[in-house]
Amino acid sequence: xxxxxxxxxxxxxxxxxxxxxxxxxxxxxxxxxxxxxxxxxxxxxxxxxxxxxxxxxxxxxxxxxxxxxxxxxxxxxxxxxxxxxxxxxx
Length: 90
Prior knowledge:
Radius of gyration: 15 Å
Largest sheet: none
Order of helices and strands: HHHH
Shape: globular
Distance between the termini: 34 Å
Number of domains: 2
Number of strands: 0
Structural class: mainly alpha
Strand content: under 5%
């Protein structure tokens, strides 16, 4: 798997801005620097755990799917777990 690089500061700031626009949960007690640190920690965690995630994927998906497809799968599963992605039958 070709690994994606960590986001640069502008990319992280854009993630934070979009997340804050899209978020419909209360952020009481959290400052913008607190949230920026959480974005950075998440990006760093993804960087440190890419290989582990890829290894956990079953074949033939692991060998066939693009990095973008693997990343989107991770995001969709995480969004579903957070209650932000609903199937039509829900």
